[in-house]
């Protein structure tokens, strides 16, 4: 069994603030170890369930957060950026399951460190007219490849968001949002034990593989804070401006995901995006 892990940081056990998840925040270096240990728990669960291969993609911010010397040595790590596929770099139809570790709720939801990809710069996103963030985009992309998402860990808002997309995905809330930068925390040993046990359970009881629909067109709409971003993105063939700050594009899901990663690079260049917190 081949298992893919996309690891974000905002939904990691114990982390609640920008100082925890953004370099050079005062707790960022400590948080890198916290992130690595949550991922290690998922890796242990995967191998306990019979995994033959585990690929981990560091999917947060600079994408060089995980500590390679502390990561379970049985796993292979993709580290650094840019990556054409961003948070799903390395995911192919050859994988039997995808696990999401440390994820957060989309922009506009009252969850811990909630946002969609670029903090304040992306105000909202819709996939086929359904509100979407990083969770929904990953789920849609994996499903288009025929790869089931088996597990998500994060705060309770992130877990609820995943359940709205797919109730068969097992979720592990490691904290309960009190506000965007405050949470009631699950004790660290308990959170990691639950991640490990739930990853094992999820992989031993995988749902039926989704029907790969890689050629089916999907429609993505993104509303930006800056009208300048929308204007620049219309230089990309197929991108249309719905209004001054909202652009739309249609493409098969994997192409759409790759194209959206190009959107992020353009937006970063245009806005010199400040920290989202």
Automatic annotation (TrEMBL):
Binding site for Zn(2+) 2: 8, 60, 104, 134
Keywords per UniProt: Aminopeptidase, Hydrolase, Metal-binding, Protease, Zinc
Active site: 115
One Gene Ontology MF term: metal ion binding
Ranges in coiled-coil conformation: none
One Pfam family it belongs to: Peptidase_M55
Entries under InterPro entries matching the protein: DppA_N, Peptidase_M55, Peptidase_M55_sf
Keyword Repeat: no
SUPFAM superfamilies found in the cross-reference section: Dipeptide transport protein
Binding sites annotated in the UniProt record for Zn(2+) 1: 8, 10
UniProt protein name: D-aminopeptidase DppA
């Amino acid at each position: 069994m081949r298992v893919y892990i996309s690891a974000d940081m905002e939904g990691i056990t114990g982390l609640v603030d920008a100082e925890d998840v953004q370099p050079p925040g005062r707790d960022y270096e400590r948080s890198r170890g916290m992130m690595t240990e949550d991922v290690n728990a998922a890796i242990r669960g995967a191998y306990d369930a019979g995994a033959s291969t585990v690929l981990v993609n560091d999917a947060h911010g600079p994408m060089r957060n995980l500590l390679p010397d502390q990561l379970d040595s049985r796993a292979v790590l993709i580290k650094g950026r840019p990556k054409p596929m961003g948070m799903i770099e390395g995911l192919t139809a050859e994988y039997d399951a995808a696990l999401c570790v440390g994820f957060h709720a989309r922009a506009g939801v009252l969850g811990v460190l909630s946002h969609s990809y670029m903090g304040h710069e992306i105000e909202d996103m819709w996939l086929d007219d359904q509100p979407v963030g990083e969770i929904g985009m990953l789920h849609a992309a994996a499903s288009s490849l025929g790869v089931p998402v088996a597990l998500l860990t994060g705060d309770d808002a992130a877990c609820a968001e995943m359940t709205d997309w797919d109730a068969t995905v097992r979720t592990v809330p490691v904290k309960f949002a009190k506000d965007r930068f405050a949470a009631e925390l699950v004790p660290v040993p308990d959170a990691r034990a639950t991640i490990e046990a739930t990853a094992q359970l999820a992989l031993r009881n995988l749902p039926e593989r989704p029907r790969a629909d890689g050629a089916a067109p999907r429609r993505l709409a993104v509303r930006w804070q800056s009208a300048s971003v929308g204007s620049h993105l219309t230089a990309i063939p197929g991108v249309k401006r719905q209004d001054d700050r909202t652009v739309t594009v249609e493409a098969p899901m994997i192409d759409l995901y790759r194209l959206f990663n190009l959107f992020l690079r353009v937006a970063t260049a245009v806005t010199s995006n400040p920290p989202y917190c």
